[in-house]
């Protein structure tokens, strides 16, 4: 009987330790990039009708309102979809430098569509913008040559330099909108990311507001 009780107590202790490690792992995963979020929920979170979008959209435009955690999709000046979003780990304030985990604010355009993203699908945002380049040059984060490259790329609607001290690789992508968990990107649920991805093209203007 004593042996059975001892074995039972030992089993309870082992299970408790395993559960504790699991909780710790989930806590760390919540602070990581989306690779730590496999199988993210695809629950629809749209605030508008879920009837299929009428494609192609006319003069599509995207607006992101960070405080509301919403992405608004417009066609011909009319709102056609609203999506719930997640932001960077440090969601308040404009992005200033690499590693600050902030989602940038300002005027951008889509410079790439990536169907093989590690985060389901992704749309590349033209960060850094001229406004970010001007601030970066003033604050000594980039050189004059880097500033000129950013300005030239934006004028030609090409990919701005992505690896300066201002940071880069800012995307709208999938893998879940339930929390602010990215390194500065805008995240949607996968089903809604698919709809947005199919509705817009390279060159689509994007405005991100505080």
Give structural notes.
The chain is α+β, with helices and mostly antiparallel strands and 210 residues long. It has a single domain, classed as L,D-transpeptidase catalytic domain-like, CATH 2.40.440.10. The protein has 4 helices and 8 strands, in the order H-E-E-E-E-E-H-H-E-E-H-E. The chain has an 8-stranded mixed β-sheet, covered by helices on one side. The protein starts with a helix and ends with a strand. Mean pLDDT is 83; it is low at 1-49.
Provide tags for this entry:
4 helices, alpha+beta, eight-stranded mixed β-sheet, 8 strands, 210 residues
Give a quick summary of the entry.
The protein has 210 residues and is an alpha+beta fold. It has helices spanning 2-29, 130-138, 144-155, 190-199, and strands spanning 61-65, 70-75, 78-84, 106-114, 122-125, 171-173, 186-187, 205-209. It is built from four helices and eight strands.
Task: Please outline the helices and strands.
Layout: H1 2-29, E1 61-65, E2 70-75, E3 78-84, E4 106-114, E5 122-125, H2 130-138, H3 144-155, E6 171-173, E7 186-187, H4 190-199, E8 205-209
Parallel strand pairs: 1-8, 6-7
Antiparallel strand pairs: 1-2, 2-3, 4-5, 4-8, 5-6
Helix pairs in contact: 2-3
CATH architecture: Beta Barrel
Overall average residue pLDDT: 83
How many helices? The count is 4
> What is the CATH superfamily classification?
L,D-transpeptidase catalytic domain-like
Strand line-up in the sheet with most strands: 3-2-1-8-4-5-6-7
Helix content: 25-40%
Q: Look up the CATH topology.
A: L,D-transpeptidase catalytic domain-like
The best one-word shape is globular
Taking pLDDT < 50 over at least 5 consecutive residues as the criterion, the unreliable ranges are: 1-49
What is the terminal-to-terminal distance?
66 Å
């Amino acid at each position: 009987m004593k042996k059975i009780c001892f074995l039972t107590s030992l089993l309870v202790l082992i299970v408790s330790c395993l559960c504790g490690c699991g909780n710790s792992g989930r806590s760390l995963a919540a602070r990581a990039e989306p690779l730590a979020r496999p199988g993210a929920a695809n629950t629809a979170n749209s605030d508008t009708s879920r009837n299929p979008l009428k494609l192609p959209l006319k003069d599509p435009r995207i607006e992101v309102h960070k405080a509301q955690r919403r992405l608004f999709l417009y066609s011909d000046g009319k709102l056609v979809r609203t999506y719930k979003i997640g932001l960077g780990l440090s969601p308040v304030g404009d992005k200033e430098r690499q590693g600050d985990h902030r989602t940038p604010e300002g005027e951008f355009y889509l410079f790439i569509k990536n169907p093989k993203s590690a985060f389901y699908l992704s749309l590349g945002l033209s960060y850094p913008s001229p406004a970010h380049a001007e601030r970066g040059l003033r604050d000594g984060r980039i050189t004059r040559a880097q500033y000129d490259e950013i300005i030239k790329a934006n004028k030609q609607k090409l990919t701005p330099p992505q690896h300066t001290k201002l940071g880069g690789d800012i995307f709208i992508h999938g893998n879940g909108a339930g929390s602010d968990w990215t390194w500065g990107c805008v995240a949607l649920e996968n089903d809604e990311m698919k709809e947005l991805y199919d509705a817009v093209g390279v060159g689509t203007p994007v405005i991100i507001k505080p």
